[in-house]
Amino acid sequence: MTEPVKLTLQCVAVLFACVVVGLLPFYIDLFELMQYTLFCSMAVLALSLGFIWGFGGILSFGQTAFFGLGAYSYAVAAINFGDSTPAIGLAILIPALFALALGYFVFYGQISDVYLGVITLTVTLILFNVFNSTAGDAYTIGSARLGGFNGMPAVPTFNMPFDPSNILFPEQSWYVTGGALIAIYVGLRLLLRSPFGRVAIAVKENETRAALLGYDPRLVKLLVFVIGGAIAGFAGALYVNWGAFVGPTIFALSLSAEIIIWICIGGLGTLVGPIVGCFLIEYLVSQIGTQQAVNSNLVLGAILVVFVVLLPKGLVPTIRDGLLALGRLGAGRSRRGDAARGHEIVDEGPAGAQPAGAE
Amino acid sequence: MAEILPLLQTSHLTMRFGGVVANDDVNFTLEEMELRCLIGPNGAGKSTFFKMLTGQLTPSEGTIRFRENPIAGNLPHQIARLGIGIKTQIPNVFNGLSVRENVWLAARRAARRDASAKRAAEIVDEVLQRIVLTDLADAVVGQLSHGQRQWVEIGTVLAAEPELILLDEPAAGMTDEETVRTAEIIAEINKTRALIVVEHDMEFIRMIAKKVTVFHQGRIMMEDTVEAVLADSRVRDVYLGKKVAA
Fold first, then answer.
1. Which of A208, A352, B122, B148 could form a disulfide with B144 if both were Cys (CB 3.0 to 4.6 A apart)?
2. Residue from B99, B140, B141, B166 to probe the interface with A (highest A Cβ count within 10 Å)
3. Where is this region: Disordered (chain A) (predicted)?
4. How many CB atoms lie within 10 A of CB B1?
5. Domain for residue B2, yes or no?
6. Could you read off the pLDDT of A35-81 as tens digits, one per residue?
7. What is the pLDDT of residue A5?
């Protein structure tokens, strides 16, 4: 696939997504719309890990740490300020700063990838235990009680910017959440096309070579990690806006594992993949939840096994490669036709030539 | 200027891995614009020497000075920014990226020094022509042949416009024609830059070399002109064997 074709496809996909977000409230009922709002906030979380793992080579087992911190930051700030506008800002800023501090030690300490996984996993477990034990009046920030294992109920949801009296309706929340997902996708796409994004991909590809060319892999990875943390934090705010509630289970291992499953199924190294994987799995889990016969974890495990064995690259890359192969077949045929008519043939380079990071 | 410093100077450079001494008290000096060949049998410490020069290894003892900067123990990216570029023994490239992207990544760092984005694009086109890979610019490097990947790596080193270029077995895996071309490019680079070249191919050394340093068991055994080195009986014993006599 050539660069312009890819760009066109990406633009078409974004336009299509905009139309869907715009029209969906007119076609489905409120309950379903709320559910899709939740999926969209989760998809933002999926994008955050899809970005740092697929394009920065950083496998964080505890992306929920930033998600949960974002959710709690939003809840505490929204209760104290009574206005969601600065709260959303804090939900991005605080996880980003936390990622900066954690990432500094991990990347500048030259800790290897395996330990990075262990550390991020441990951090989210520590946060779970910390927030789980904040019951009682002692754990109050301003007028916001952290509430221990009961969590924080009745958190104010999003309002119009700087207008706390004007709280968003569920339809409006859908537009905000769906719009945010599209905006973050587009933002990450642009970032990956920028010099910084290209260097980040290079560091993921070959850290030694990048360093020998004069790029500091520690700094590049730290920045990627912080961007991922900020996006995950924002996803946390979107999540609280959906349920008006946040509890310590947001840091639980099951969600951490689920994000990784979304990405494995959707396709690592793409941005659409994590979103697709998240929607598919979340939809499936919610459908399974409506009946009692099969346990959803069992189904989830089975799906993961099937994917790892049969489609190790995940859905989006498999479909893309399939389409490319079809396209080549077609191109080959027409090329032979051209040759028969005596036209000059321009070689487009080796078949399947596809730079990493393309989708 | 008080005195003219050599481009690169190592003193008492030593590298130990546990009980193994890979480099032992290496005192090496390279002048500006010099072309030096390093030869020596496998395990003589040539690659370890290169790794210390580029910051991939921190020497156990000794110092390295690049012009006026002491660089022993600096990180690879810091040394690269000072202007040392390396082509490693096994092609060390961005396999998942296109040829153009590989070269651009190097050119961008170089262009940053004179702070222009246009310059990077110019360097990329220049280098692609020089390594004769313009037609394959959009191909993924991982799918190219070993020889072509060698060229890509040489291209990235050129695009970074370093002051000192280290080439670890640049002709390995190349056809005779490509080897000749590599020799030509090295001669061309040497008009403006200093180089250190590690090679096993004696024909290739004869094509390019002026002064040769022989490594043996982690030490510098001798340093002289190509003719003198190849005529030396000790060198024949440790390394060249009957190959040269034949």
1. B148
2. B140
3. 333-359
4. 4
5. yes
6. 999 999 999 999 999 999 999 999 999 899 999 999 999 999 999 99
7. 83
Among B80, B97, B136, the residue with its CB nearest the CB of A213 is B80
The helix (run of H) or strand (run of E) holding residue A337 is: helix A315-340
Task: Let me know if residue B155 belongs to a domain.
Answer: no
Q: Can you tell me the distance from the alpha carbon of A306 to that of A302, in angstroms, rounded to the nearest whole number?
A: 6
Pairwise CB contact (< 8 Å): A353 & B140? yes
For residue B64, the surrounding DSSP H or E stretch is strand B61-66
ipTM for the complex?
0.90
Q: Is residue B111 part of a domain?
A: no
* Under 8 Å between Cβ of A119 and A106: yes
CA distance B89 to chain A (A): 12
φ, ψ for residue A216 (rounded to 5)?
A: -90, 105
In chain A, domain spans: 3-254
Within a domain: B57:
yes
Tens digits of per-residue pLDDT, B22-78?
999 999 999 999 999 999 888 888 999 999 999 999 999 999 999 989 999 899 999
Closest to A232 (Cα-Cα) out of A52, A102, A13:
A52
Is residue B73 less than 8 Å (CB to CB) from chain A?
Answer: no
Amino acid at B212: V
Low-confidence ranges of chain A (pLDDT < 50): 339-359
Output the domain CATH number for residue B55: 3.40.50.300
Domain that holds residue B223: 1-74+196-246
Measured between beta carbons, which residues in chain A are less than 8 angstroms from residue B77?
A: 210-217
Number of domains in chain B: 1
A355 contacts in chain B (CB < 8 Å): 96-98, 101, 138, 140
